[in-house]
Every structure is written in structure tokens, then in C-alpha cells.
Automatic annotation (TrEMBL):
<dbReference type="Pfam" id="PF10962">
    <property type="entry name" value="DUF2764"/>
</dbReference>
<dbReference type="InterPro" id="IPR024492">
    <property type="entry name" value="DUF2764"/>
</dbReference>
<protein>
    <submittedName>
        <fullName>V-type ATP synthase subunit C</fullName>
    </submittedName>
</protein>
Length: 286
């Protein structure tokens, strides 16, 4: 049995807002959740933020002058310990996820990475493998979904522009094998990826921003679907975090669209706080 967070889930908008037109950052949400959820559940929360740590780490390792991403779990001072082999050997790696520590060991060891993108791909691959091994069905499903979605989009783009893409696919399974070999419209994946035709239709959207919006709505609907029966569990919180990432992205890409999506997030939450009918019938209350 998982933990239930009745007050937390019902109060998520209050955690995020001073008023409903201003989005508090997902970094602030994480710090609030640190105090609100059980330690094991908070580890799951942190896992969702790890791609921002990937970004910060790779920028340091490849000396890219990029702005620090505040949504990462680890501070700049902590991450700077990993910039070179000498400092890494005496660095504190105790709290790093295993896959992250393994990547650093490989990077500073005998294994070499040709460039930033090769390192990014290896780290992403390791991340998805790590998520797939977590004892939480939501985390596993998110890992598979993100991996499949990313690979399908890479393959469609490569096929459209007639450029090699095999080495840009993340993972090694029957889906990546089909994406590499098949020349049919759906890569022969109609059984393995039930919404492959919908993804192809999204990709065929001419306007890039419209395509991105459709993809993010697809992600949003996926999160709704896999948490439909999670009423006050950590999965509901995790889905909220991922949706907030989407909102933050659109605040940067298109502020008005971002506000619209945030309002949708609030409306979804408010609607979702109604107890399900079976709960009402069983316990005589809402």
C-alpha cells in the first residue's frame, strides 16, 4: 500500500500560487514536497528533476557557457566537484543515483565520449534504464513513454530528411530495432506502440510550434490516463510535477499559451478533487 496525501494533493494549487495567474517554479514545488512527502516518495520526486542535473553536469564537463538550471537537484558547488578527474576522485558521490555515479566514473575513466551529444545520449539511456528498474509502476511507465516518444520522433525526422539516425536512438529493444530497419509508414509498430499513427499525424503538423503543442498535449493526456485511478497517492503528485514542467516550457515558448495550460492544470486539479463515485458509495461521503 502506498502513502496517501489527501491534504497535499487537495492543496497543490496553494503550494504553487499566490494568485492563479502566477506560476511558482517547479524548483520551489520540490522544496515544498521535501517537507510534505515520505522520504522514499521524495526520492521519486527527485528522479523527475534529474534531467536538469544532466544538463548542468554536461555543460560543466564540456565547458559550455550556459546558464545554470536551478531545477536541478544538486547545487553548482556540488556539481563542480565532478568537472575533472582529480577533484572527482575526492568528491562526495554518496547521494548520487547509481546511474549518475556510473556515468561520471566512465567519463573520467578509460571510456571516452566523442562529444557533448554522445555523452548526453549515454546519460539519457542510463537514466531510462534506471527508471525502468524502480519499484514504482508510474515511474516505469513514464520512462517507457518518454523513451518511445523521443525515439519515434527522432526516426520520423531522420526519415523525412533522409539523414542517418540509428545512432541517435536511445536504448536497444524491439522498438528501436524496428525504427532502424522498417520502411513502412508506422515502422511495423502498430502492436507495440498503440498510438503510433497519432504520433505520426502529430509529426506531420507543418508549423513547428503547433507540433510541439500537440506533443505536449499528448504527454498531458498520457499522464491523465495513467493516474486516472490514483486519487491522493504520490503518483498524482508526480504527474502534477511533470505537467508543471510542461507549463514552464510554454511560459518560455509562448507566454499566453503557458497561462492557458496552467489554468487547465488548475481546472484539472479542482475537478480531480471530487472523490470517485465508488468511494462515495462505500463511505457515504465526499
Amino acid at each position: 500500500m502506498g502513502n496517501n496525501y489527501y491534504a497535499l494533493v487537495a492543496g497543490l494549487p496553494d503550494i504553487l500560487l499566490e494568485d492563479k495567474k502566477i506560476v511558482h517554479s517547479s524548483a520551489e514545488l520540490r522544496e515544498s514536497l521535501r517537507e510534505e512527502v515520505q522520504p522514499a516518495d521524495f526520492k521519486l520526486v527527485e528522479l523527475l528533476y534529474m534531467p536538469f542535473d544532466h544538463q548542468n553536469l554536461l555543460n560543466l564537463l564540456f565547458k559550455k557557457e550556459e546558464e545554470w538550471e536551478p531545477r536541478g537537484n544538486f547545487s553548482r558547488d556540488h556539481m563542480e566537484q565532478f568537472q575533472d578527474r582529480k577533484n572527482y576522485e575526492v568528491a562526495d558521490t554518496e547521494n548520487l543515483p547509481v546511474y549518475f555515479a556510473d556515468f561520471l566514473e566512465a567519463f573520467h575513466g578509460e571510456e571516452s565520449f566523442e562529444n557533448y551529444y554522445a555523452a548526453e545520449q549515454e546519460l539519457t539511456h542510463a537514466y531510462y534504464r534506471f527508471l525502468a528498474e524502480r519499484p514504482n509502476a508510474f515511474i516505469q511507465e513514464v520512462a517507457r513513454y518518454q523513451s518511445v516518444l523521443g525515439n519515434v520522433m527522432v526516426a520520423l525526422n531522420g526519415r523525412k530528411h533522409e539523414v542517418p539516425y540509428d545512432n541517435n536512438l536511445v536504448g536497444d529493444d524491439e522498438i528501436t530495432a524496428a525504427l532502424k530497419k522498417s520502411r513502412t509508414r508506422d515502422f511495423g509498430l502498430s502492436n507495440e506502440v498503440s498510438d503510433i499513427e497519432h504520433l505520426i499525424q502529430i509529426f506531420e503538423t507543418d508549423h513547428l510550434l503547433d507540433r510541439e503543442l500537440k506533443l505536449d498535449r499528448h504527454k498531458w493526456e498520457f499522464l491523465d490516463e495513467i493516474t486516472f485511478f490514483n486519487y491522493f497517492t504520490i503518483e498524482k503528485v508526480l504527474a502534477f510535477v511533470l505537467k508543471l514542467f510542461i507549463v514552464e516550457r510554454w511560459m518560455e515558448l509562448d507566454h499566453e499559451k503557458g497561462k492557458e495550460m496552467f489554468n487547465q492544470l488548475l481546472n484539472d486539479l479542482e475537478a480531480g478533487f471530487q472523490f470517485p463515485e465508488e468511494f462515495t458509495l462505500a463511505y457515504g461521503k465526499k
